[in-house]
Write a structure and sequence with these properties.
The complex is a heterodimer. In chain A, 87% of the residues lie in helices and 0% in strands. Chain A has six helices and no strands. Chain A has helices at 3-38, 44-73, 77-112, 123-142, 145-175, 180-213. The two termini of chain A are 22 Å apart. Chain B has a six-stranded mixed sheet, with helices on both faces. A four-stranded antiparallel sheet of chain B has the order 2-1-4-5, covered by helices on one side. In chain B, helix 4 packs across helix 6 (167-180). In chain B, 34% of the residues lie in helices and 24% in strands. Chain B has a domain at 21-115 and 183-263: P-loop containing nucleotide triphosphate hydrolases (Rossmann fold, 3-Layer(aba) Sandwich), CATH 3.40.50. The chains are: A mainly alpha, B alpha/beta. At the A-B interface, helix 1 and helix 3 of A face helix 8 and helix 10 of B.
Amino acid sequence: MTARAGLDTVLQEIGANFLRMHSLVLEQLTAISKAGRDQRVGDLSASVRRTDDQIDKLELTLEDQCLHSIARHQPVASDLRFLMLVFKSLTDLERAGDYAVHVADDLVALLSGSLEARPNDLLPLLAQLVTMLERLSYAFAERDREAAASLVILDDEVDALYEQLQRSNLTRILENPRSLPGALQIARISRSLERLGDHLTNIAERLQPWLAHAPR
Amino acid sequence: MLAPSAPAIPADGIQLDRGALSAQHLQVFYGRKQALFDVDIDLTPHTVNALIGPSGCGKTTFLRAINRLHDLTPEARVEGKILLDGIDIYDRSIDPVDLRRRVGMVFQKPNPFPTMSVVDNVTAGLRLTGVRHRGKLQEAAERALVQAALWDEVKDRLRQPALRLSGGQQQRLCIARALAVEPEVLLMDEPTSALDPQSTARIEDLLGSLKQQVTVIIVTHNMQQAARISDTTAFFLAGSLVELGPTDAIFTNPSDPRTEAYVTGRFG
């Protein structure tokens, strides 16, 4: 195998593992959405946590792969920028996985208890984040700049949904003080989801300049 | 005998007004074969400039054109201009021998004069230009050896044959020989390709300080070396200059897809 072919193989593996990390966060969000929609949590916490363990392991694997490919191949230009993109984005994806765990735990607490709450309010936010993740994976896999750029707009919509949820929560508390504990739980979850969206946007913002010069 | 004491440092220090080099519509032919096509390039004084590209791309041809080595090849022909400090080096009034004093060259393999001592090697160029004063020759030798980062290693064996030095030391001796005549430009044609990693590192370290005295133009096949040592990088392909830019840009985000393909090893 030539040196170039060796580097190509490693870069392909890194790209595949990076996409796999996206898929795992997507699995977490899909499971959370389903539980929210069905208002049945089952083993949501445990399963989201198991997926998070896989995400953490993949993060370490990818860190090693990036480090070794730099040490062994001394990549430059688009190869180096690709590795930097992945390496920097790992933390964002790992954090996204952590937020999914918080959301799952809080949703379980919300639905398992006797809190007065309306978890359906969270569904548009969750759906938007699922779309963001799907769009991000597509942008990376297909080298699609427009898809990457659209994430910033989607995140603005996430922020708007989050604000709207905070306002309706507050109104509900004022109307019915007994709804306070549930409303606070919803506020916590929506805050986690909003932060999760920010991490996905960070990746998209890094992806755009890389895509502008990436070899096809 | 030279005193192995404090080395002489040029009193004038950095001369920023010397060593500006530019080529305009430069073309080189070997008989009917054209080796360089319409090369335009501007190099800033006191910078290290790397020339990269696959074998046969014209980088060495370009280098040799800068000190008129093609004059020595009967079927070679040069068209266009090369300006050194604004004056065309191919002008009839320019003496090639005088030019080669202003534009020194270091080759792939160290080529010290085998019958000469260390110090005689360094002063050979000066003696050819008519300098006879013993003190001046010694002073120039010491200064050049210091600049070439060789002084500490040879100060006690200046009268020994140059061939007793290691390969890396011999190459630095050749650099000292080129520096002794105080050139404005130093051309280096793969100067470390025949050296071990340690000697290569010493030459690379040296380049950073050499640019205070001269404009360095170095041909290298070692991409990492070009990235480490140069301020600007020029990429040649099939006789044409494809891209010239700051080394940081060439190795992180080159403008031309051919440069990208070459530096990432996708071809060449």
